[in-house]
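Repro:
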Amino acid sequence: MIKHIIAYGVVLTIILTPLAAQNEINKFDESGKRHGIWQKNYPKTNQLRYKGKFLHGKEIDTFKYYKLKRKKSVLSAVKVFNLDNNEAQVTFMASNGNVISQGKMDGKNFIGKWVFFHKNSQDIMIEENYNAKGQLEGKRSVMFINGKVAEVADYKNDLLNGITKIYSESGKLLQESIYKDDKLDGNTSYYDIDGNLQAKGSFKSNLKIGLWEYYKNGELVRKVDHDNDKVIFKKQ
């Protein structure tokens, strides 16, 4: 009889332990704020949507987020929250587990340096920098899969401001331009795939102004005064 009571007690403990563990999630503190481990499933499914830890309503430590693929939860993002503010180190992932991008967020805003990777690769595709408002600020670089630079540009307040350079996959300069508030504004030069100058001149708010020179095989073939829309030289 005693053995049966002991056995029953063991079985009851095994059954109740996971139930007790389940009761420890999705709790609120005395103020009605989320506190402790929380996890949520997608509606009308047993598939996880997110899981993480709250401290009196604030996300802390590691949160994992999932998306549904073929009706199954697949890890899509990991955020490691800072205890002192709303910032978090973030990693976004593809369905196969490969990292898509990494950086820091403040709430919903990207801040600081962000890195994006080529598909199914650990090779960097894009490097960007963001200010505290979540706007592009400073250098933005785009790379070919071979590691060579495809484009490098300067940004301020989310707009192109400064020099932009575009390159071929072989590393030849194709275009060098100056932008102001997202518009071509200043000297611009264009080159062919072999690096030979094709045209050069100036823009003002995306419009060609002043004297432009046009080349073919490295030789000047035409000059145009774009202020007066007049050809002033043309090679015969």
